Amino acid sequence: MGLLALVAGLLLLPLALSDFWIFIAIEVLAFALYAISFNLLMGYGGMLSFGHAAFFGVGAYAGGLLVKKAGLSSLGAFLLVMPGAMAAAAIAALAIGFFSVRRSGIYFAMLTFAFQMLLYTVALKATGLTGGDDGLTGLRPPGLLNVPANYYYFALAWVLPSAYLLHRLVRSPFGLTLRALRNNPLRVQYSGVDVRGHQLITFVIAGAFAGLAGALFAFSSGNVFPGWLNWTASATPIVMAVLGGVQSFLGPALGAAVYVVLEVTISGSTEYWPLFMGLIIMLLVLGMPRGLAGLLGRRRP
Predict the structure, then answer these.
(1) Number of domains making up the chain
(2) C or N terminus of the chain, fewer CB within 10 Å?
(3) Which pTM was predicted?
């Protein structure tokens, strides 16, 4: 019942919002999927990645290049952009994950960080392809999708099925094995499971959906910049997941919504918004160790 109410609320949301807040709602949808995909690695797989923004950025650049360079700018062709962005991010995740999952703990985290910085350098220096420091600008969805409310429903049509698929994944035997790997990888290995193979598949899936989130956000904001691949960008999904609660599937999505709305609200009021944003997030995390989803769970009768 609660899930149906959530879906109904998301469908009716644009009717109550101005164009500005519809753009914010699209951003929330994109970052919610981004945070959920990251939590597949950290919350369910126990793999803390410092380079998840690499796939968000690859998906955004791939979507932009498919429209700018490959000519997929008509309404019908634009439907291929999101799968193309997912494919590009999945290929990048496969290449990075092949090396990264061979290590664990801080070594895994630092490897993902190193590969992300490599991609950031490519995005910064390959000016003929990526636009360099200027990035790709003027990215707008074609035709009717250029109306904010219509693009919101387009994004929702991608995010809801993606979240459903990821939820089914973590509830499946694959997901249960993933959680077992998080708790005791050595014991799972002794039971005959290919630990590295399982982690690599998870890494690729998480990367693909992060790429989808990046492409959705790129055509909402209208731009893609190398900063989306910089090391600071990978802090965003970590903060969202921890803020919302890594123990809950929808916790990171809730954290993404609170994070984006806080950022928009505070940045419009003061130039010192990062300071206030940091203080608020710190108080929320310290006051709710299990995140916002944990607080809601305690209040549930």
Answers:
(1) 1
(2) C
(3) 0.93
